[in-house]
Structure formats: C-alpha cells, structure tokens
Amino acid sequence: MSPITSRIDVRAPAYAGNRAAMLAALGEIEQLTAQVVRGGGSGDPTKDAASVAKLRGRGKLLPRERIGLLLDRGSAFLELSPLAGWGTGDPLGGGMVTGIGTVRGVECVISANDPTVKGGAQGPTSVAKGLRAMEIARVNRLPLISLTESAGADLPKQADIFVPGGASFKNLTRLSAEGIPTITLVFGSSTAGGAYVPGMSDYVVLQKDAARVYLGGPPLVKMAIDEDADEESLGGAEMHARVSGLADYLAADEPDALRTGRDIVGHLNWSRLGPGAAKAPADPAYDVEELLGIASADVRVPFEVREVIARIVDSSELEEFKPLYGTTLVTGWAHLEGHPIGILANNGILFSEEAEKGAQFIQLCERHDVPILFIQNITGFMVGTRYEQGGIIKDGAKLINAVSNSTVPHLTLMVGASYGAGNYGMSGRAYDPRFVFTWPNHRIAVMGPKQLGGVLSIVARQRTEAGGAVFDEAAFAPMREAFEAQVEEQSTALFATGRLWDDGIIDPRDTRTVLGLALSAVHSAPVQGSNSYGVFRM
Amino acid sequence: MPEITRLLVANRGEIARRVVRTCDLLGVETVAVFSEPDRRAPFVDEATYAVALGGTTSAESYLDAAKVLDAARRSGADAVHPGYGFLSENAEFAEAVVAAGLVWVGPTPSSMRAMSLKVEAKRIAAASGVPLVPGAELDVDASDDALLVAAAGVGYPVLVKASAGGGGKGMRIVRTAGGLLEAVAGARREASSSFGDPTVFLERYLERSRHIEVQVFGDTHGNVVHLFERECSIQRRHQKIVEESPSPGATAVTLEAMYAASLSLARAIGYVGAGTVEFLVSGDEGAQEFFFLEMNTRLQVEHPVTEMVTGLDLVAWQLAVAGGQALPLVQEAITRKGHAVEVRLYAEDPARDFLPGSGVIADFSVRDYRTRLRVDSGVEDGSLVTPYYDPMLAKVIALGRTRTHAAQLLAGSLRTSRVTGVTTNLMSLVSILESQPFLDGDTTTAFLDEHPEVLEPTLPVEVRRLHLAACAVALLDPALADGPVGSGGVPARAARGWRNVGGVPEVVTVRYRDGARDVVAALARAWGREGPAYWICADVDPILVAAQTIPTDARFERLDGVRLESAPRWPRTELRPARLEVDGIRRALRCGVSGDRVEVDLDRWISSFTVVEPWARSEHGAGSGGPSTPVPGTVTHVAVAVGDVVAVGAALVVLEAMKMEHTIRADLDGVVAEVHVSVGQSVDAHTVVVTLTSGE
After folding, report:
1. Are A95 and A104 in contact (CB under 8 A)?
2. For residue A119, what is the DSSP state?
3. pLDDT confidence bin for B485, thresholds 50/70/90
4. Residue in chain A nearest B530 by alpha carbon
5. Is pTM beyond 0.90 here?
6. Is the ipTM of this complex over 0.90?
C-alpha cells in the first residue's frame, strides 16, 4: 500500500487564507481555554484570581492539579469539552473538568469539580458534562473517578438541573451494575443531592477535616427537626469512616486521598477487553502542521478530504474501498496509532451511490470488528427531482440504518460542514458515536445559513403571494439577514461545543493524537460488530 | 620453619582479596572463611577453598577464634593471616594459632601483647628513647581532684583515651578543666562497654598536628628495617580516609629521627613481621616535634601506599618472614620513587555525620590504570553492604611523579568511577583531593574540622542545571524511557504526558544530593506547539508545588528546546551514552533510568535522583482521633492517668463487652493528655477513651 499523494500547494493564497483563519479561530479558543484553566469562572481576571487565592489559602489544589497528581507520571490527559457552557450563561467549562487519563496503567474517566467556580456548584452545563462523562465511562467500559468538592446545586438554576441531574445517581449505580468501577474522592463539600455521589460509588475516600457529606447541613437540620448539630457530626470524614461507614478510606490530606485513589485502581484487576493496536504506530508521511491550511475557512468551499486523512493515519496509508464508485464519499481501511480503523469521509454532497457505498462499507467494518472514523464535511444529501425519483430517501435510509445499528465504536470528526441528514448518515452526535471532536472551522445546522435564509425567503414569498399580495424583497431582506446571522451564530463550533454537541474543539494538528487516545479508550470495552440491522429498503 | 603452602585468611573484604592475590602469585593456596552475609562476597570465590563460619555479626563469625581455628583444621591450612582488624591484634588468638601447629603470619604474641596496652606500649617506647606526648595515667578510682591535678600537669587541651582498644572509641577532647570530669566518666563508660576495661588515660591534645607513621618490618633473624613513612592526617571521627607517602609536611630531619625511633622500638620488643609505629608531628619546619602514639602490630589498611612508592609486596614479605626467611632487602636497598596517595571509599554519608550506609551496590566500577592507579576493593556489582561490618568498600591508590600528579590521577579516577546503590563518600574524597589546602600539603588532623566544606561539595551551578534538565526529560518523557508503547497502549506522543488543554504543567519532584543536603528539586513540563517546555527549580520546599503557578514562579527556570537522545530504549540498570541539548548546545552525557531513579553523569559529576511522590509527606491514611472502643461495653479497667508516658501498643483501657475483654491500646508514642472514661462506665462503640499527644 502506498501513501496518499498529497497535492496541496502551501504557497497558494487559499492555503494561506485558510491557515490564517484557522489560526485566528484557534487563538480565540486558546484564550477561552486559558480562562477556564485559570479557574474562578467569573470571566473577570481579578475576581477569578481571588477565588483561586482563596482556595490556595486553604491549602487546596485546583482540579487540574488534583488530576495531575492522580495520573501516572508522564501519561496523557485528554480533557473533554473544556469550553462547555460557552454562550449559555453558565460559567465557561461548567465548573467541572472531565477527561480520560491513565491511573496505575488503567485508562479511566476522571471528573473533577472546580471549587473556584461558584464553589463547585452544579449548573445545567455541569450536569450535562457530568452525565456525558458517565456515558463515556459506560460505553467505553472505563472506570470512573470523581474528584468531588461541590457546593451542590446552583440554586438559581435549580429548575434546569433538578430533573435531569437525578440521572447522575442512577448512572453511577448502573455503571457499578455493569462492572465498571466507580471511585469517589471527596475533598470538600458533597452535600444534599451531592451526597449521593459518594453514596452511589463503589469506593469512597473522604479527606479528613475537609470532606463534608450530609443530606442536610446544620441550618436545614435545625429547620427540619430542630436539632442543633455540627458539621462534623453530620457529615465529617472521621464520622463517616468510623460511624456511618460511608467512607471506605479516610485520607489524611489531598495527596493522600489521591494516593488512595491510585491504590484502589491498582487493585481493580482491570484489563482491557478490546484487542488494542494491531501494529506499531507510524507517523504520517506529511506534516501535520499543514492541516491548518487544508480545511476551507468558508465551509462552502470544498476541499479534498484525503489531504486530511493523509495527515492523521499511520504512514498516510489508506486502502481505499470502491474508489471509483460514489466518489464523494471516501471509504477505506487504515491504521491510526496502530489501531485498525475503517474511514468514511465526505468529499462533497451525498448521492444514492455514496449512501449505498457507505452502508456496505459499514457492514464490512461490522464483520471485521473494526472501529469506524467518520470525517464529516457534509452539506447534505442531494435533492432534486432526478434524485428523489432515483430513490435517494431509500438509499439515505440504508446508510442511516447501517450507522444506527452498527455496534463497533464510532469516532466522529467534524472538519467542515455538518448539515442536514448528512450529519445523521455520518454518525452525528444523536447516533451515539463514542466520541465527537470538531475543528474550529466546523459548522453545524439543519442546513447552511444562506440556504436557510433563502428557503425562508421563498416560503415567505409563497405565503405572501398566495394571499394575493406582492412580496417586497427589499423589505424582507433585514429579516432574512437577521435570520441568517442567527443561524450562522448557532452553527459555529463554539456554539456547538458550548451545548455539549461534541466532546471538544481540537486543534487540527492534534487530531491524530486525540483520535489515538480515543481509540485507545474505546478498546477498554470489547470491540464487536453486529449483524443485526433494520430492514434495508431496496 | 615450614614453608607456607595453604594459608587461611582470617578476614573478609578487600584485605582478604589482597592477601589471596599475593598468594596466587606465589603459588600458595588460600582458604577464605566467611559469615552468612558474606556468602556471596567476591573474596569467598577468589580463595582456593572457603569455609563457612556461620553467624552474622563479627562476634559470631570473624571474631570467633574457635570457629576460625576449626576452619583452619578442617581445610588443612598450615598458616593463618589475620589481615587487619578482627583478630589481627589478639595475642591469645595468635598463641592459639601457634599452639595448633600453624604458622602465624604476624608478630610474636609477646610483642603484640606489649604493644596492645597503650600504657605498657608507652613505657616501652619511653625506655627505647621514643618521645611521648605528655600524658598521665589515671587510676580507675582516682578522685576528682586527682584527675584535675593530672590534667593540669599534662596541659590542656587534653585527650582522654581508653587504655585498651582504639578506633577512636572512648576518646574525648577536653579544652578546659570544666569539661574534664564528665569526659573522663564518659570515656570510662564507653571503654568499659567496648573493651570491657574502663581504664583511661590523659595525654596532651596536639592541635594542628600531623599523623605520620613509619612502616617497620622485622624478621626472625634479628633484622629490622623501615619502609619509610605514611602521612594519614586527614581523618574523620579519628579514622583515616586519605593516606600518602612521602609525608608532605615532615622535614628530613624529623623523618630520620622518626625512622630511628621506630627501629629502636621494634628492636626493643624483638619485632617480627609488619608493624607500624604511629606518631603525631607538630610544628613546622625548623621547630618540628614528634610524639609516639602507638604501635600497630599488623599490616595496616593503608599499606598499599608504601607498596606503591617502594614497589614492594608487603604481604609477600609477611609470608617470607612467617616462613622463617630473612627480610628480602636490607635497609639500604629499600628506596622509594614518586608519590602515592590512597583514599578510602566508604559506604557512608559525610553530610549525616558519616552515617554508615547499607544496601546492594548496583554498580561498582572504579577506574584503575596500569601501574599508576590501584583499586583494592572488597565489593563488585551486586555486592551487599551490610551493617554488620566496617563499611569500607575499597581503597583507591594513585602513584604520581609528584604529589600533585598523584592527587590529579586519583581525583580523575574517582570522578569517572561509578558506585551506585549506596551513599558513599566518593565526591567528598574528590573534593578533598582537589582542595587547595590539600594540594598545598597543609594536612593536619584538624583538616576536616577546618575545611568542613570539602566533605560536602556542591554541584557547580551550570552542572546542576544540566543534570536537572536531563533528569526532567528522563522522568517526564517515559515514552523516551520505555520506547514505543506496545499493542493496546496509548499513542506514542500521547504517552509523553500530552495535554490537549495546556497551561497546567506536569510536575515531578525529585530528591538528590547536592553537597551537604538532600535537596528536593521540582521539574515540570508542559506541552506547547513547539513541543514540550521544561521548568526546573533546584530547591523547592515544600515539595507540593502548585502546577498552575509554575509558569510564573520566579524560582523556576524555563528551559526551551530541551532534547535528550539516547538509545531507543533507556537502559534499565546501566548508564548509557546520551546527548542532551539545552540552549542549542549539545552535551554528551551518560544517563540511566530505573523505575523511580535517574542517574546523570555529566561534566565529571554524577547525580542520582529519586522521585519524591507528591504524597511522600502525607500520612498514610488519616491518623485516628485517638484510641477508641471497637464495640459498646463497660469499662473494667483504666490503666493510665493524665501525664503518663506511653509507647505504641501500651494498654490504656480494658472494656468488657459480650463477655469478651477488649484491650484498647496506644496508637502512638506519647503522653496521656486526657482520659475520657472511668471504671464501670458504659460506653458506645467508637468512643475515644484517651487522648494522646505525640511525644515529639
């Protein structure tokens, strides 16, 4: 097999323009990420610094520092959805750090409250992010370690979290029922509903003189039963270690709690059930840096997806399947960091041939138990009389049927547009891919803003003209523009990641590493295809 | 006298190997004896025969004369060489050897006995015209006043010494009358417990004096010669660590007088074999005096110094004399050439009051060089250093054209040597040899008191920086250390502590030795677009560093473009050549990673780093709130009261519950601060019964 031949011209103005646009977008993301990392969550550097100083003053560590000490030395941490909450009014990042890292040689999902952000109180973003972390733990069979220190519910937003948030506790026990260990280390408050996080975990480590775990604190107890009780008696670590038995381990301090957490993972007798990498990894033949200039800054400008593949797969080698048929969908076999994968990647709009080719290719991946990487740059399925009459609905349905019932792990990478049913056919978020990562130039919507605006305009014209009036194009223009702008705003990568439609925006240059880590994680669970599909409409 | 054909070496370690080496050359078979811990020691394998003595401590093995004699009988040995230490100066043992019909390679028991008691030795020395340090003998029951009068007669500062024994045991320096009585009492106690004899004596303490000794040799034909002097002034805790010949400080006149005095003493006691007459020499050119210290009736540790400058084999001489032959050379035929310096490499920590170390020596390679550098070692790779015996690992001896040349050779040998697994005084020795006072020959017995800094050399700033940089990469880049991660692993780049969300460096703290102190350094690495950036901080305390503050923490130095290249796989146990690039400059080094340990050898310095886990200073599990009741019950007994001092495990309170007695015990050494229960009281489970405060 020979490497993909790259044909990009790094001196072309288009390349330079794309690169500049990508770097600008990355700059913005980097700035937002730095804001999350510094803690505080207020968006105001001075206030944030004060929150952090307060925490440090109590000898406590920030969540990423706790995670750093928990992880094996020199091992990676793939942080998920760092910018969750963007544009929602919630603190950026949701006051929570989630990700995948290695503890005592075991890949785990780690979820840590950031006590500098509203005292670690849980808002809608925190809840969604926590649920997503549990989902990742469940589907990939990864032990879950919670580093807990939370003021509880973000009370002003209680209406948004009370009902969905309850799933957290159900999920914990379901993970346990599935044999996926759940470990909670409590460094501070974990009260009221939060008390069920340790309550529902397999292992509970409480930090002495710091952890407070109770259903009701002193004021509530006073109100409810007129009892004067102190915090230690209600929920102190010592009390839980000696009296209630909620704590399985009593830790002397934060490092000791983290050591205990590591020791617990060490005795889990854990092994990965997937086959793992099939061969030694080999770097791509091309410079990963060039990914910055490949993806079009304007999603309406097509680009060759093989150029992307050439910079993320081992040795840039892709064994293409049906290269001459259904050419706007590239399918083929490759290795990524040694892991065998099947790839479906868009090189334009989907036609019937592409849909059928994709459905067939997915079935082959299922047969061979090979995880699938979907690379989305899709503006949708083809429309028009010819295609409708050609049965494009039936063919698209075949692809969606295959995607939906496929059981090998899916990884979805958004490198451009993700519009319409193309999103579904290419294993968009609703199709439960194990991970979804996006590039900063990514756009996601039911269709492109211009098309939507145009459609809106046409529908308005029809309605007006059906009523016998004359449609005033100029008068409608501001409304159309405002709508287009709204769609544009709601289809950006930041908007999407803010709502947890993905697991994070990544730097294109990190794609291979991120996907490699994700592939490694999915192999913690068995990798098994299915042979069970819905009825294929012929 | 019969010729020696099979020699039992009643010793261990380097001296046993040393004796075996000469025997091999002379065609004499050897018998080693060994204790249990020495079962795998090199000297055991190198002897023709080896006999287990059993036992662990010296008393159970090498000091057990009956066992050694039995080994000689069973192995058919016809002679016994005692080496130094152990039974080498034990006249009864020598007599027993002779009585068993074996040849004793050493002086006659009577001369051993004469010289072994210091007071007696001095009497004989004085009678032979050997000058003595002003001193006074003390009766065991002398009154305090008598002690003070005696000391005033000797003149302060005085040294209180045990009459029996040596090695600095029981020795005290007293500078004024105020400290005398206490020092005498202390010395008596120590002498009594070490030697079974509380007799002590006083002598003038000569400050800034030199320890110079004369090697003498006698035979059974009445010949006595000297083999020049050795200066052994540099001592730690009254034990020599650097020895040389010729003495850099003694004048020719002094030396001639010392040779003559030594020969006179040896003749006076009819000395046979190798012996050493030790002197203190004070004053400088023009007004030099020397005083008799003692005579050692054995081969000295430092005899190779004499061998190097004279080209003679002293063990061969010992065997010849013991075999009844005349001395191989007459006095006029004995000459010396060049300058020899010996250092003693010890498993000890110079920064912690020379605390002896023990453990497995991971690597032992000390550079020798033809006839210029000699290594007499008792250990090799994998040898076990036990706490049961003297922790000396090796002697390294250099023969130079000049004294400076010898010091250079020796320092160079040590700097390129590698001794790992136990803490040694290696760099202290280098530092002494390279120090200006040493090179100036300003060596007195106060050398280390006057120049304590030489014991604890600190890494030069730039060397420290590069060592830390190499250590940082080696530890924080395990992908480099482990090579490509195997199947099922994570991506190679990702395995190198990669983060998609930057800004929080990964931190590792390591402990290393920098001069006097065990220092904790923090190393950090963060991923950036240009690759990883490293930060180093040579000295952090406390060890838990806030990762997010490192980029702006002034104590940390940022290093960019740090690269370390080695073989594809880091060696596990040995140092391998590698290249380190910092600031665009590549440096060759040797580096090894083994679990939590990193060793870096760069710029003639070797640093050993050990990871300090972030929880190293945390208690393991939280301490308890105090000893508490395991079950509900009735208190039947309270064993302690407030103020009592208790040790871990001491019974505090007895509880009767379910017809069973439960004793609640102290969980720490401390003092009872509060007693919360009384007899007859019913208590719940988990009731704290006593509050203890830590005794610290």
Report:
1. no
2. G
3. very low
4. A289
5. no
6. no
